[in-house]
Amino acid sequence: MLRTHTCGELRESNCNEQVTLCGWVQRSRDKGGLMWTDLRDRYGITQLSFEEGSTPAEVLETARKLGREFVVKATGTVVERYSKNDNIPTGGIEIKVESLEILNGSKVPPFIIEDDTDGGEELRMKYRYLDLRRNEVRSKLQLRSKLAMAVRNYLAEQDFIEVETPVLIKSTPEGARDFVVPSRMNQGEFYALPQSPQTFKQLLMVSGFDRYFQIVKCFRDEDLRADRQPEFTQIDCEMSFVNQEDILNTFEGMTRHMFSAVRGVELGDFPHMTYADAMRKYGNDKPDIRFGMEFVELNELAQNKGFSIFDQAELVVGICAEGCAEYTRKQLDALTDFVKRPQIGAKGLVYVKCNADGTFKSSVDKFYSEEDLKAWADKAGAKAGDLILVLSGTANETRKQMSELRLHMGKELGLRDKNTFQPLWVIDFPLLEWDEETERFHAMHHPFTSPKAEDMALLDTDPGKVRANAYDLVINGVEIGGGSIRIHDRATQQLMFKHLGFTEEEAKAQFGFLMDAFEYGAPPHGGIAFGFDRLCAMFGGSDSIRDYIAFPKNTSGRDVMIDSPSTIDEAQLKELGINLR
Amino acid sequence: MLRTHTCGELRESNCNEQVTLCGWVQRSRDKGGLMWTDLRDRYGITQLSFEEGSTPAEVLETARKLGREFVVKATGTVVERYSKNDNIPTGGIEIKVESLEILNGSKVPPFIIEDDTDGGEELRMKYRYLDLRRNEVRSKLQLRSKLAMAVRNYLAEQDFIEVETPVLIKSTPEGARDFVVPSRMNQGEFYALPQSPQTFKQLLMVSGFDRYFQIVKCFRDEDLRADRQPEFTQIDCEMSFVNQEDILNTFEGMTRHMFSAVRGVELGDFPHMTYADAMRKYGNDKPDIRFGMEFVELNELAQNKGFSIFDQAELVVGICAEGCAEYTRKQLDALTDFVKRPQIGAKGLVYVKCNADGTFKSSVDKFYSEEDLKAWADKAGAKAGDLILVLSGTANETRKQMSELRLHMGKELGLRDKNTFQPLWVIDFPLLEWDEETERFHAMHHPFTSPKAEDMALLDTDPGKVRANAYDLVINGVEIGGGSIRIHDRATQQLMFKHLGFTEEEAKAQFGFLMDAFEYGAPPHGGIAFGFDRLCAMFGGSDSIRDYIAFPKNTSGRDVMIDSPSTIDEAQLKELGINLR
C-alpha cells in the first residue's frame, strides 16, 4: 500500500515510529511558523504538523499549497501532541512531516464536506461522489454492508442457500408496472425486470432447496415518492415443510440477530396481532406499539344524546392522551387543524378534558352531561389529568384519521423514541381486497398466497371475508417485511386466478410453468421478504431510504449525477426492432 | 416444522425415537408382506419401512399408492436396519412408519431424477425445477452459495465495504452491446443495464470508500455461446492508495482463502508472467501452466535448409512431448488432423521422433540431417523417447495454433488434472489493441486502465506498444479475474479517450461525470473483477458455467421454462413511448 497506516489508527503507543499516511485534506491552520493539517480518510483523521526550521523547506512549501480535499501522501514521525484532542481517537498524536507528496489536487468542492454541510439536496445528488465522502453518509452505507453480512451469516448458519435468480424474466400483468427490456435476439419480444423473485423462489422449493434466501435487487416502474425508488433491495426468503408459526419464529430469530449483532440491542417480545385487531385498535395495519393510546369505540355511549354528528356516524372513536388535560385552547386548535388537513380529512375534533378536580370539560358540553363524559372516561381508562380526543364518521375513514392523530400525539408526547425498537407480527390479513377502480378483487399480498383452510368455503360466498396465511413484520410502525404460506397445488392456484379475474388462458400463459411445477411433488412452503432499504433506514433511525442507497434516483426516476436515462441512437433502436413514437 | 428431522440426519444412536420426516419418494420396493420406500430431501435419503401385520392397514394402503416424487410426511420409530447400507450416512437405520400423509402427489416426471438422468438438455431446461432436484445440480448451486459466503467473509475481514451500485444506468457506446430499458417517466430516453459497475466503483474510490466490493449481476447483449450468458455475476472489487503489487497480493489472499475454505486445497505459488512472455512461451494470454511444454523457437535452426515452408514462415515453433517418440502413424495423423481443423487452421504438422537409440526420425528427413534434428532436440530439451511437434507460419497465428496443440497434448498425456489448481498472474498487458474492422485502437481492458508511466511517451509515437497496469488471474488456463490500476486524473483520461477515437464532446457526454469527479481529489486506485460463474465452474471441475446458474438462458437468450422473452401489449408500449418496427 502507498501508506503504512490509515488515518484512524495511530495512538500514543506509536510515538517515534516512522509512518506514511494517505488521505484528504480536511483543513489546514497556518500560524506563521507553525502549520497543522487534518488528514482524513474513511478510518479517521490524523493531524500533520509542519514547523519552519525543522520541516524541510520544500515540504513546507508543498504544505502551503494544500487546499481542501487535496489528496496527499505524507511521511513522518509520530509525536505526542502538545494540546491533545480528546474528541478523536488519534487526538493524542500528530505526524511531524518529513516528506509530502500531492497525489491529486482538488477544485473547491461545491459544498462543504462535513457532517453539517451547506449543500442542498439537488447539488449533493449531482455530486453524489462528494456527498458520499461525508462521514454521515458513508457511515450509513457501512451500516448497510454490515447488516447484509449479519443477515447472510445468520441465514447460512440456519442452512439457507443463497441462490441468484434471473434479472431478465417475463412481464406479468399482475401487480405494479414492470420495467421491460427489448430483446435483440428475439425482436418484438421483451424481458421484464423482476418486481420480486417470487415465482423463482417457489420453484426452488419445488426443487427441494428447502431453505432459500437472496439479497436481491427488484424493480417497479411506479410513480415515485420520497421513500420509493425504481430499484430497491429485498431480503428474500423461502422455506419448505413449514407452517406460519415456523416462519415467524425463524425470522424473529433473524431480526433479533440483526439488532443484536449490528446495534447491540436485545429485542423484547414479538407479539402477534390480527389484521382485524390492528385495524380496530390502531386504525392501521402497521401499528406503532411503542405506546398504547388504543382506540376506544364510543358509539354506545355517545349516540342518541342529540349530537347529530355522532348520531349519524358509523363510528365514534376516541383515544386517551395521558396527562394532556392542561392543553391550551391553542394546542387544541392545532390538533383540530392537524386532523382537518386535506391529507387526513377529518371534519372536526371533539375533546374531553378530565380535570384534576374530577370534573370534565368538553367541546360538546351542550349535548353531554358530566355523567355521560365520566362514562366515556371510564371506558377509555382516562384518569384525572388526561385528555380524550374523539373523531367520528364512516368506520374506515375515521380509523385512518384517528391513526394519524394517534401517531401525531405519540410523537408530541415523546412516546416514539428512535432508540426503542418494538416489533410486532400482524397476521391473518384478508386474502383479497376490492378494487373500486377495476371493480374486481385484487390479491392483498400476491396471487400465490394461500387462504386459511377454514375460510376456503367463503371464497365463493363472501370472498372479501377470506383470511390469508399472510403476515407482516412491523417495527415501530414501519412495515419491515411481509410474507405468506403459499398455495402449493394446482387446483387452488387455478381457483385463485379465477377469483382474481384471470381467464384460464391468461393464467396459463402467465403462470403455466408454476402451475405445471405444482403437479410434480410441490412441497408445502412459505416465505417472507424484507424491504432492505427501509430496514437499513429504520436501523439508522432515519425516515429516508434514499440516504441508505449509494446512488439513488430522484422522484423523476433520474440519476442526475450520470444524467440517466438518456437517448440512444437510431442504429441501436433498429437492432432492437423498435421505434420511438 | 412439519418434520422433526431431515432425511439426512438420523443414525443408529437415534434408535427407538419417534420421528417425523418429510420428503420426496425416490423409489419403493414392495416384496409382498414387506415394503420399503426411500425418502429424499436436500439433506439425504432415509428408508421408510412397512410390514403387513404390524403397520396399520390404512398406512400400508397409502404407502402402496406412492409414486415417484410424491411428497409425504411420515411418522414412525427409528429402528436398526436388518441389512445395512454403508454407502449412505443414514444406512444403518430405517423408520418403522406408523402414520403417513401424502402432502402432494406427482405426475410421472419427464426424466429420471437421479445423478445419471435420461433427460436431454432441452427437456431438463424446460423442467429446470425438476433438474434442480437432482443432487448433482443442486450441489453445484450449494457450492456457489458457499463460495460467495467465503468471498464475502474474507473481504469484510479485510475492511472491504459491500456497496450496491445501480442496475438502471446509462448506455455507453464503448465495449459490448448494452441491454436497454425504455423509461416511461422520461419518454424517448432509456436506461442501460450495467456491463460492470466500473464507473461507480471508481466514484466510490473518489468518495473515500477505500475498499469496495460487490457480488453483482452484469449484463451484455452479445450473441451467445455455450459459456456465455446475457446476465452473469461478477465479484467486483476496488481499492485506493495501492499499486499493482498490493492488488495482486490482496486477491492472491482471497483466492487462497476460497480454495482453502471451500475445497480444502492449499494453493502453491502465484507466479507472475508478462503478457509478452505468455504469448511467446505458450501462445496464449491465459496459459495453463499445470504442465510445461513451453514453445521453442526454431527459426534459426530450421530455416535456410531448403524446406520452403519453414523458410517462408515468420515463425517456426516447436514443443516437446515427453515420452511420445513411440507415437504410431495413426496417432501422428490424428494430431495432424487436429491442427488442420478449421477452428485451428494449421496447414500441416511436422514431427521429430527422438528415438530410444539416439537416432531421429522426422516428417522432414528430406531437408534435415540427423545433426540438424539433434540441434532442434537440444534446443527443445528433448531426450531420447520424446517427440517434437513443429508448426510454422505467421507468428500470431502459429502461436495460437501451437497453443491449441499444446493444450491438446497436455490433455492426452494426463497433465491437466482437474484436482490440481495452478494459479498464474499475467501482467503488463498492452493498453490498446488495433481493431481491423473499425480501423482504430480499442482499449484491451477498458478505457479507464492506466498506461505504465515509463511507456507514456509511446502513446503518441507507437500506441500499440504501450503497456498497461493491467493483470489477469489465470487458473489452469481459465481466466478467472482481471483488473487494472486506473487513471485518476482528468488529463490522462481525456488523452485516453482521444486515442480511442472519442471526440471531446462524446467523451464528455458519456463520461463527463467521471472526469469531473477526478478533479475533486481522486485518489490513486485500482481493482479487479472475477467472473463468478466461471470461478464456480472451475471450482466444481466443470467447463460449463450454465451448470452453476439456477435458471440459465439458452443460446438464443430464451428462458424456455418461463417462456421469456415474450410480447407485451400495446398499452404498455404506448406508455413507454415506443412502437415495434
| Oligomeric nature of the chains | homodimer
Which of globular, elongated, flat, extended, rod-shaped describes the shape of chain A? Answer: globular
Give the end-to-end Cα distance of chain A, rounded to a whole number of Å.
Answer: 54 Å
Please estimate the helix content of chain A: 25-40%
CATH fold label of the largest domain in chain A: BirA Bifunctional Protein, domain 2
The fourth-level CATH homologous superfamily of the largest domain in chain A is Bira Bifunctional Protein, Domain 2
What would the average pLDDT of chain A be, to the nearest integer?
95
CATH class of the largest domain in chain A: Alpha Beta
| Sheet having the most strands of chain A | 8 strands, mixed
Share of β-strand residues of chain A: 15-25%
Q: What's the tally of helices of chain A?
A: 17
Task: Provide the number of structural domains of chain A.
Answer: 3
Architecture of the largest domain in chain A, CATH level 2? 2-Layer Sandwich
Give the strand tally of chain A. 23
Question: What strand line-up does the widest sheet of chain A have?
Answer: 6-9-10-22-21-20-17-11
Low-confidence stretches of chain A: none
- Radius of gyration of chain A in whole Å, from Cα? 30 Å
- The secondary structure category of chain A is alpha+beta
* Chain pair sharing the greatest interface: A-B, 121 and 121 residues
